[in-house]
Specification:
Blueprint: E1 2-6, E2 15-19, E3 45-51, E4 53-59, E5 66-73, E6 77-80, E7 86-90, E8 96-101, H1 108-111
Antiparallel strand pairs: 1-2, 3-6, 3-8, 4-5, 4-7
Length: 115
């Protein structure tokens, strides 16, 4: 097994990628409740492109300038944290995206500031 972990202890959203050999397994388990306290929340998110293509644009912290663009294809993932803005544009019909996002999510006005 190869494990690639993108883990920063101060980030709410974390990612682990496992490349498994045939019949490889883990010990059965369940997750436990942990004491967690914070006074300030911001949404972090990850997008996984399942089908199609997406143009991902990442902005500077002020949201004024695109600092990077990447074309994402099926199997690619992007993670966005509180260090700048982002935008995604579908490049093909029937593009399918899985989004993983820290919650809670109430509504767009509560969650986002447009740039």
């Amino acid at each position: 097994m190869v494990e690639l972990t993108y883990l920063q202890k101060d980030r709410f959203l974390q990612l682990g990628i496992f490349i498994l050999d045939k019949n490889q397994t883990f010990k059965p388990h369940r997750h436990i409740y942990k004491q967690f306290s914070t006074n300030l929340l911001i949404a972090n998110e990850a997008w996984v492109v399942m089908n199609g293509e997406v143009l991902a644009q990442y902005y500077d912290i002020q949201g004024d300038n695109i600092i990077c663009e990447k074309k994402l294809k099926a199997g690619d993932i992007t993670m966005s944290f509180q260090n700048g803005g982002h935008n995604y544009k579908s490049l093909k019909d029937e593009t399918v995206i899985y989004e993983f996002k820290s919650g809670p999510y109430k509504n767009q006005e509560w969650d986002k500031e447009m740039i």
